[in-house]
Design brief:
Elements (H helix, E strand, L loop, with lengths): L1 H10 L19 E8 L24 E7 L6 E3 L1 H7 L5 H20 L3 E3 L2 E6 L2 E8 L2 E7 L3 E3 L7 H14 L15 H13 L6 E4 L2 E8 L2 E10 L5 E9 L5 E3 L6 E2 L2 H23 L13 H82 L1 H13 L4 H7 L1 E2 L5 E9 L4 E11 L2 E7 L15 H24 L7
Antiparallel strand pairs: 1-2, 2-3, 4-5, 5-6, 6-7, 7-8, 9-10, 10-11, 11-12, 12-13, 12-14, 15-16, 16-17, 17-18
Helix pairs in contact: 5-6, 6-7, 7-8, 8-10
The protein binds zinc ion.
Length: 493
């Protein structure tokens, strides 16, 4: 009997495991998302039994979505895909993404720098003050910022209150660096916020170029953006573009008639006019106040304020640019100074080099003179050397054949020979004879010490003739040279 009972109870499906199947006519009805749940990681204290999709039968679901139908009393539990099919307006993947990252975000939230003052916990974040405080029956939380909200439930420990506070703030995206579009924001709060933005309108623009100004602001109703820019090269005029909040976290471009203005200030005022009207209407709509709003026109004082702020910003920009220009000029001046200095240094070096060369030449000249002088002194003191030199000059080149054979061919095709003038321990001098080709004929040059005799020979020859003539030329030049050395008064030129 016991077996039979077991069998019977096994045949009865447990309510939580009911699977209806895709073809069930009830899925033809209209479904709406009711909520979602995380069964948590298996093995953790929070882990709950896995879910099962009641539409397609998929099992072992960690994330489940509960759906409701107006015609049926019960909620059903489905997976991500089926939730999306039953309610196309419900973003099930996004809900699941939020659930998946919730634990990470919650851990970060709890680890933030909470301050404890007389038993109350505080946190200041993204422009909001959060508090967890003891209340009758446990712990409560509050948020103070653009709006003030207090929890209606008492939690039995501060940690639970902090988690509940997280869930409230997290759902409304109160975290992060931007002021969110908060709900509920009262109409008065919104209008005050809009008024504030209007008041700071002109000074809120940043200068991007002489032809482009940009304003970006977060308002309680959402993010706004405004550009004022020059359009048209040949006939420039100012245009504006406004981005206004739309749905929660969304934005839309303002679509109105194209507004063109002759100056940037006028464009800024025109943008403010549109902003005021649109934002105030939006605030009324969000607060569900069904009234057509009529705004007074922008006052002269407001126009003046915008003009002043614009001019002030322009002046600051000009001053900044002037300062930059000055800095650039100073840098150029400095550079010029450095270049001047370097040029000066280079000139000094060149002058020093020229002086050195002059000194060297003078030294060489002096050395040459000294050598010629020394040579003459020796000759004056040792007449036998002078006699020897005169003899040598008389005999010079007497052996025609030896002279001809002594020539060497150089790499450039010239002929050259060095010859001894005198070789004694007291005095040793030599000369050089070169026969070379230039300007259509052959020429002869005889180099002798101290440049006492010009070494060029004027006439031109055929090659063989030049070699033959060189002996006579060298001989006559050596004779002149010897006369010059022996008799300083003799005019060698
Ligand atoms: Zn399913």
């Amino acid at each position: 009997m016991a077996d039979l009972d077991d069998l019977r109870s096994a045949e009865q499906p447990k309510p939580a495991q009911i699977v209806y199947g895709k073809d069930d006519p009830m899925f033809k009805l209209k479904w709406r998302n009711h909520g979602f749940g995380d069964r948590h990681k298996e093995g953790t204290p929070e882990a709950a039994p896995r879910g099962r999709c009641q539409r397609c039968g998929q099992i072992n679901l960690r994330y489940v979505h509960t759906m409701e139908c107006a015609d049926l009393p019960d909620l059903i539990e489905v997976g991500c895909d089926c939730a999306q099919i039953l309610d196309p307006s419900y973003d099930a993947p996004r809900a699941e993404r939020l659930m998946k990252t919730r634990s990470r975000r919650l851990a970060r939230w709890l680890s933030l720098g909470w301050q404890c003052v007389v038993g109350n916990q505080y946190l200041n974040r993204a422009g909001f003050d959060y508090g967890v405080v003891p209340v009758a029956g446990g712990w409560g939380w509050w948020i103070e910022g653009a709006v003030s909200i207090t929890s209606k439930i008492a939690y039995d420990c501060p940690d639970k209150a902090r988690v509940a506070l997280f869930d409230y703030a997290d759902g409304r995206n109160l975290r992060g660096g931007i002021a969110p579009s908060l709900q509920p924001v009262t109409l008065v709060t919104s209008l005050r916020d809009i008024e504030q933005v209007c008041y700071e309108w002109a000074s809120g623009f940043s200068w991007l170029s002489d032809e482009f100004y940009r304003l970006d602001r977060f308002t309680l109703l959402g993010k706004i953006g405004c550009s004022v820019y020059v359009n048209g090269r040949s006939a420039p005029y100012w245009e504006l573009c406004l981005t206004l909040p739309d749905q929660e976290n969304g934005s839309r471009k303002h679509e109105g008639p194209k507004r063109t203005c002759t100056t940037a200030v006028e464009a800024k005022i025109a943008a403010l006019d549109i902003f005021r009207k649109e934002m105030v209407q939006m605030a009324y709509k969000r607060a569900s106040v069904q009234l057509e709003v009529l705004l007074p026109p922008i006052t002269d004082a407001e126009r003046q304020r915008i003009t002043d702020a614009h001019l002030r910003a322009e002046n600051e920009q000009d001053a900044r640019r002037a300062a930059e220009q000055r800095a650039r000029e100073e840098a150029a001046e400095r550079r010029r100074g450095e270049e001047e200095q370097q040029r000066e240094i280079a000139q000094q070096a060149a002058r020093a080099e020229a002086a050195r060369q002059r000194r060297e030449e003078a030294a060489q000249e002096a050395a040459a003179k000294q050598t010629l002088a020394a040579c003459r002194r020796i000759l004056a003191m040792r007449p036998e050397i002078a006699q020897d030199l005169a003899q040598r000059t008389d005999d010079f080149g007497s052996d025609e054949r030896a002279w001809g054979e002594a020539f060497q061919r150089t790499k450039t095709g010239s002929f050259m020979q060095d010859f001894t003038i005198i070789r004694r321990p007291e005095m040793s001098l030599s000369g050089r004879c070169t026969v070379y080709y230039k300007h259509g004929d052959w020429k002869i040059a005889v180099f002798l010490p101290f440049d006492l005799v010009p070494h060029w020979h004027r006439e031109g020859y055929d090659c063989a003739d030049a070699l033959a003539a060189s002996r006579v030329v060298a001989r006559s030049k050596l004779a002149a040279w010897t006369r010059g050395v022996l008799q300083p008064s003799y005019d060698v030129a």
